[in-house]
């Protein structure tokens, strides 16, 4: 097994994703002006999670609509821009499509940058500060220089190795898909997310195939009564169970701290599998055709 | 391997789910009165999918709010009812909680009944007719009496046996979770759904573990440009790929026809695994505590 505390393990990281992860806080574009309210945000691809997490409505008849064009929209974002521009709302296109007003290049870590821009553009600097504090707090324990005994992301990566992760976050359910995306894109790995009725799924969905298939590793992201119930149900049904506590002054900071922890975990899992955690060349082509 | 064209295979169906499946169309409560508009619907548990599919807003300040109490809400539905009752909207509680105005007992097939009630209560009889027509059309080919060569649900169940299904429906993404729930509850089986950026997930998420784990079977539900792209990407990455065409006069009918086809498929998969497709006793306890 590869050793996350040895330098040669990091040679597969050819694009230097570790540096981007370490220096993430404070990166990304800042608004150059004040945008009239009320604000709305509609997100696609890499911008979708930030739009949901911002809590802004996804459409507005007036004020400013932030259109987060993070790819994979098959022309829908452009259509929505046209539609919005016929109304009284100002449309601010953010992302990596041609002609955007605010540019955010493709990256598995772009969700942080979309969220940061949205918080600044809507005058929520306080909330951004709490997010950044939570991420900086996490960062101290998660980097390559912190040995596995003191590094929860390294530790979790070892737990997930050779297992099929199952993510559950009653705190903010869309986090599950965001983490599934991180694991696909960074660790090149398959993972599972439950349907809306998650507890029912845990209770009855693991019978027929469980014994023959991949060993499952449940990852409970954040607190909640549902997480406690899920733990009770899953303990006897999965091969391993990990609870990831949420740190942060508010829900938004907690969710982003969990997301950041899982980004590091996906990074370490890539190293353990011996695959480059950086972006796959195929993704560029997919972004072009969609 | 068990044979779906032999009677003894059906002995594990102790609760007679085949009859409930066959006779589903036209079952469930009908509204006893006219409900003032505008209408809104907020759904939990078994009612969640119908609320989304109805296209109704999930909250309204006036008119009628249909609160679909299909379980697993941990008191949230009751809280929402109290909140709504302080406003000008009338609240109609539907489901299986104590004191509901319209009763729909727990069943894996309840989503149809919640949807049917909503369509009738909001004056959309025409749409319901198109849904029912699509389901009746499906039913002719899906029952136990139709042999496997002419029965697409039986055929698909054989394809999914001993594989890990991966559901994708660009037509209506919440269908994926609804089908994942059917497979858990009826077939007692694990299945996968992709995150919002599904094509990216298909392209890069199947590398690290794919060769060692369960063989994957992708199931593309319904039409669309994304479904065609997904097929192209997945063909070389999964063990089996099935395309399920959508029949029906409109999107709602198409989605429900796909859901019904997958309910039959989950039923047959349970029989192939030799498990009772009926409800697990544990679920009743879970509904009580949540």
TrEMBL record, chains A, B:
The keyword Lipoprotein does not apply. SUPFAM superfamilies: SIS domain. The keyword Isomerase applies. Residues 149-288 form the Bifunctional glucose-6-phosphate/mannose-6-phosphate isomerase C-terminal domain. GO terms for biological process: carbohydrate derivative metabolic process; carbohydrate metabolic process. Transmembrane segments: none annotated. The lineage of its organism: Bacteria, Thermotogati, Deinococcota, Deinococci, Thermales. It comes from the Bacteria. Gene3D superfamilies: 3.40.50.10920, Glucose-6-phosphate isomerase like protein, domain 1 (3.40.50.10490). InterPro entries: Glu6P/Mann6P_isomerase_C (IPR019490), PG_isomerase_N (IPR041001), SIS_dom_sf (IPR046348). Keywords: Isomerase. GO terms for molecular function: carbohydrate derivative binding; glucose-6-phosphate isomerase activity; mannose-6-phosphate isomerase activity. Belongs to the PGI/PMI family. It comes from Thermus thermophilus (strain ATCC 27634 / DSM 579 / HB8). It holds the Pfam family PG_isomerase_N. This is Mannose-6-phosphate isomerase.
